[in-house]
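User: Could you check the structure of this?
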Amino acid sequence: MTPRETATDLRRRLEAVAEPATKAWFENYLKHAVSYRGVKTPQVSRILADWRRVHDLGQWPDKDQLALARSLIEGRFAEDKFAGTLYIQKYLLRRMDPVQILDAAENLFASGAFFDWSTTDWLSVRVLGPMIARYDMPVARRVAEWRGAENLWQRRSSIVPFRTVVRDEAYHPVIEATVEALVPERDRFIQTGIGWVISDLSKVHPKVAEALVERHFADFSPEVIRRHTRHLPGHAEYKRRASVNRRRGNP
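Assistant: Sure, the predicted structure tokens are below.
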């Protein structure tokens, strides 16, 4: 089989087990931001593993496997994108030069392959975060540089992967600089991306999280204050201050 035929075979396998009710549930949850076939996540994982075995993909050169994963992520359906992301996580992340994976990720953003928070966050949580933890500052700095990207979802992915490493104080300066660059944006998906990192940080380094909240309080959305500062001792006071600001007509 050619690489294209191999990818088509996976899509056929996914479509064969698709369920309309599952499709409807996922698309409703994601507010129809991305199309679903109707396959649950554990099924995608099992089908992917079997497909890889049947086609003996482990014998392919790594660069060809990465190209195959990219072609899946470029697909229309969320399950295809998840399968490609999962392939990188399970079979390539520990053996490939991280630069090659980051190059592929940047090309995927540039081509518009990511256009919703869910599939973007799969990449952030399953690939980029573990890569930062494994390969340290060279990867962390390159991912953080995405905060200046034109693509909204790439900017979100400049902060969300750092959820993986909030416990390690060595990454705090990079996190703080990225938050400072992003937080003036009012877009909800940038704000909540920051919020998830603040929330995780508050569980292990509450004073660092508090300092970030105080420093950027005026720029945080009410949703971030309400949902993502709840593990901090000052949560009630933050909500009160945010409510006062709204009554005064501040954003």
